[in-house]
Amino acid sequence: MSDPPGDFGRNLHPVLRRVYAARGLISSEDLALTLDRLLPVSTLEGLEVASDVLLGHLDAGRRVLILGDFDADGATSSALMVRSLKRLGFANVGFLVPNRFRYGYGLTPEIVSLAAEQSPALIVTVDNGISSHAGVAEAAQRGIEVLITDHHLPAHELPAARAIVNPNLAGARFASHALAGVGVAFYVLAALTRRLQARGLAHTLSPAEYLDLVALGTVADLVPLDRNNRILVSQGLKRIRAGRCVPGITALLEQANRIASDVVAQDLGFAVAPRLNAAGRLDDMSLGIECLLADDMTVARQLAARLSELNEERREIEQRMQAEALEAVARLHLDDPDATRYALCLFDESWHQGVVGLVASRVKERIHRPVIAFARAEDGTLRGSARSVAGVHIRDVLDAVAARHPELLDRFGGHAMAAGVTLQRDRLERFRQAFTDEVGRWLDPVAQGIIETDGELAPEEMTLATALELRAAGPWGQAFPEPSFDGEFELLESRVVGDRHLKLRVRPLTSGESLEAIAFGYLDDSAELPRGRARLAYRLDVNEYLGVRRLQLVIEHMARPLQGS
Q1: Residues 269, 336: one domain?
Q2: pLDDT, tens only, 133-160
Q3: What is the span of the domain harbouring residue 468?
Q4: What is the pLDDT of residues 483-500, one digit of tens each?
């Protein structure tokens, strides 16, 4: 039952009430994130057939092999499947995550050949497989059944798998199209558990025991945090705060100097996920999965430490590539009336293909338009990672390019905001033009560079208490963004910390006390320390040092300083 008009949020902080209303939350029911509010398991198509397949292999005692993707969503999906199937009585379960640089993406015939060495009777894909026609056919030739669990957008034809579970299939009636790969795996396991419970088995096991893994994968994959995903993330965070998570997550939080009892979604996205992703970007995601599968805390800490080392290596590579990319961007005249104003395609022979997605993301944040960054793969092709902006569905853009120019792309796939693409080197320039032309059909030039915030705060609202309220009020994430605000400030002091970050003391022009602020990654070789007055877009953050909490503004965008001071 909805609240009477005007009653919603009566006990909420006024700023939080305003923030919730801007995101479409209008009743107390919208704030209820308990498990009983999850979309019913019975409403996701394909689960009955998937359960039949899994039960058949359980009863026969056959080997099941989980084939995951090489990112954090794939790693958490793999760990969730392996842990849960073993708990449900599967005696012979393994996992495989092939090297991305050698085998590429998805269930390819080459990966099936590699998997066949383990003699599985069933391959279960997690966070991949919906485009793996040739791989599924190869598995069938070898007598291996395939169950596909995925969330990526399908092509017009589906692979001939034994069963497919994907909320984004054409005609799907499931009320959320935003599940991450780990969310789809969670629903598959929930359906299987119910079937086993109907047999009088598995009565003590619930897939909710691993919602910590579901929360991590969902946040890491940047899928929209609709209500269903906010429930999954919220409940997973509760388990982590209560110390009821897998040792690997605890160890990764320790490496990031985060306190588990205070963890929020942003900690998973900015501290834990990058360490997990570093394995897939630079080495082998098996290392990340082993960390999430470890039951011994000592082993988990050793693996988490190695993941942190890889993440530091990733940072160094990314910073070099980002500097090169921004230098290339600086040479472009982005205001010229040509197609380059709509989107960018960047390529450098020296770039590492495991890090181009991060470079695309950083450049996109700087120029506020879609970006694809390419690197050369081992087979000589170019593999690109795309990042988009609101209003441009990047996977649909690539689909349209493929329809208009079928000779250009070898393969592609992805989501609204992120996608991957493979093409031949000699087709790059033609693709660049076709891509920017297609983005231009989507993008409103007037809206380019517009930054949306939750408005201005009064000086008396810029407090530690407000920051704590907002921090605790999530989970915030994709399509349910963490609150940000804007206003004009006087820049009183500025200095460089950590080579590239800008530490400031600012004061709102509407009066008030001076405040601490930081702009992460603000400086490049051409940047000067800002001074005078500026319009800032910022978040309220809690900076804790030596047990003392202080308010800090995290500056996300800084307009050109205003003259006159």
Answers
A1: no
A2: 999 999 999 999 999 999 998 888 999 9
A3: 459-558
A4: 999 999 999 998 888 767
